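[audit] Reproducing an earlier prediction to check determinism. Same input, same settings, fresh worker. If the tokens differ from the archived copy the diff job will pick it up downstream; this log only records the rerun itself.
[audit] input (332 residues):
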Amino acid sequence: MKKRPVTSQQVAALAGVSQSAVSRCFSTDASIAPKTREKVLAAAKQLGYRPNHIARSLITRSSRTIAVVMSQLDNPFYAQMLNCTAHQLQQYGYHLLLFMSSDEEQSASIMANILQSQADGILMLAARLSSSFAQECIERGIPVTLINRTVAFEGVSQVASDNYRGGYWVGELLVKRGYERIAFIAGLPESSTSSQRRQGFLAALADHGSHCWAEAQGDYQFATAQAATRTMFANAPYPDAIFAANDHMAVAVIDTLRAELGLRVPEDVGVVGFDNMPIASWPSYQLTTVEQPLEEMVIEAIRLLLGQIDTGLVAGESKLLSVVPIVRRSTR
């Protein structure tokens, strides 16, 4: 015979408090006296009570859930960002619901699933869906915030680092270090991060009387960056420095140069990345890179999103955070 679930009324009776006190005890943002909380929790533990969050969401019209839309987890930078996002949301009493998307065609089905889940808001880390998906969220009145992405239209909140300035620093560094044949491996063609890093990089080269020796598409993918490196070194003269638009690709470049082409880093080729992932500081890479304030970006994005949810106003606000140059031994 199936055992009936314990009710909040039974917990209230055992603890000698009102049913509303039990509800407050299990609500993240409700106030309750410490002694009352102690009695409620002790009674709940004794009876084996579990609060019904689904029933509560029907009353409050809040699921306490945030939908996170991502494109990839193979890039350690986004794995780090997801981990940070989960921890930050937990502090506010929210759950994370993850949606993976690899292309624009999945936009409609993802939106349908998010609407069905009744998520209170959306955090977007997906490069391929940023513009169109964010626009649809605004039209539907759904609170949404972009992390590490920017879009040109108004009304959407977005938090990003200063990619242009980071790219400019890389170009300036490589010219000052005496590199003459400087190449660039880009991220996704439609990605604002790759575009802004490239713009800053090219501007620095031009300002210092240089130019980009060669360009290739890496799509922020390890294997694609490897293929781009092979192509760049298929015929002489070869690049003497490569700026990869993120660390994930920069590591692929270094591995290819050393393991397949028998070249030394930085003696034969200098390599610079962007993000400052933990692997960048490993002894085998010692990658010169640009550090993004990952945790600060997540904190700011969640603050903006929860602000929209709390006020019920879907309004756009943008935050541009500073980057930090990190010089290591992958450049001479």
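[audit] rerun output stored. Observation attached for the diff report: The first strand starts at residue 65 and ends at 70.
[audit] end
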